[in-house]
Amino acid sequence: NGGGLLLQSDGAVVTSSHFIDNEAGADGGGCWTNSSSASFTSCTFTSNISNHNGGGMDVAGGSSVVLTKCVFTSNSGVFGGGFSAENASPEVISSTFTLNQASANGGAIHNYYSEGYYYKDVVTSNNAASNGGGLYSNGGSPLVSHCTFTTNNAVNNSSHNASGGGMMLYDGTPDVDSCSFTSNYADYFGGGVYNLYSKAILTNDTFIKNHAMYYNGGGLHTFSTIYATNCSFHANIAYNGAAVSCGGLYNQPVDVSKFTNCILWGDTGTEILNNALATFTYSDIQYGWIGVGNLNVDPKFKDASLRISLTSPVINKGTNLAPYITPLDKDAHPRILNGTVDMGAFEEN
Fold this sequence. Notes:
The protein is built from no helices and 44 strands. By secondary structure, the chain is mainly beta. The chain has an 11-stranded parallel beta sheet with strand order 1-5-9-13-17-21-25-29-33-37-40, with no helix packed on it. Strands 2-6-10-14-18-22-26-30-34-38-41 form an 11-stranded parallel beta sheet, with no helix packed on it. An 11-stranded parallel beta sheet has the order 3-7-11-15-19-23-27-31-35-39-42, with no helix packed on it. The protein is globular and about 55 Å long.
């Protein structure tokens, strides 16, 4: 473990350091921490290799590690090409992951039963041969906030059954807030996000130009409970359910998925495939959908990020009682103005 650096005690402070071309036979090609606390600031992890977890870095055994303004490039591993955390408490802030690759799950990030906090990360152009091109989370209650997932891929050239181009959520109770999923690709389910067994919360997220090549859910596919509030979907592509696809629920006890205050507009093909009794309410859905407060009108996006114009018909058309509604929108502006929330990820200000 720890091709470049191994930490098994508390208090390490690592700044402006470079981990390049290191290799570990097991975990942490660049660095491995176990049962320790440490901080890394303005460090780079480049072309490191792990034969198991964390090509660039692996955080394990209850470690508490904070990464700030770090850059992970061209690292590779089996789980977590760039970074992996198992049973740990990582904080990854304002860091960048590019061209990392996992032969199994989590091209950039692999979060396994960890209470991870990922904030203002830029996760682009990473690949996973199985699931979660950008991020794969298994268990725990990670918070992923204000992150950007762009041009990540979940690709299996032999079986074409890789899912979650931008992110895969498996088990646990993940919270994904104010994130952007753009131009991610999956062979199978969920070009942007694939949710399985977990009870996930999605708020103020945008899904743009994601693609599920051979199956369902260009923007999002869920096989378990999901609460999506004030999310926007546009220009996604899939065989079925270009924006959202809801399959049979696997989680027990079963809670019905709820999509509230959302915009689903301009996706290629049918907006929704719903085989799971999911409810869509107070949402603007192209071609219409049965549900309280739903609209079928052009939302009048004013820019490519899916902000709405001053004359948008979805202003003040949401419900303030939406599940897990947040006090701020995706731009960190007040969520409710003039008494009633707008539909979509952005409040018109």
